[in-house]
Amino acid sequence: MPKLEDLLFELRMQEKTLERESKRAEKEHLALKSKVKKAIAEKRIEFAQIHAESAVRKRNESLNYLRLASRLNAVGSRIRSAQSVQNVTKELGKVTKGMEKAMKTMNLEKMTVTMDNFEKQFENLDLLDKVLQDTMEGAMTTGGATAQVDELIGKVAAENDLQEQLEIMKAPEAKKETDSSKTAEADDLTKRLQALRN
Question: Which residues form a coiled coil (predicted)?
Answer without folding.
Answer: 4-42
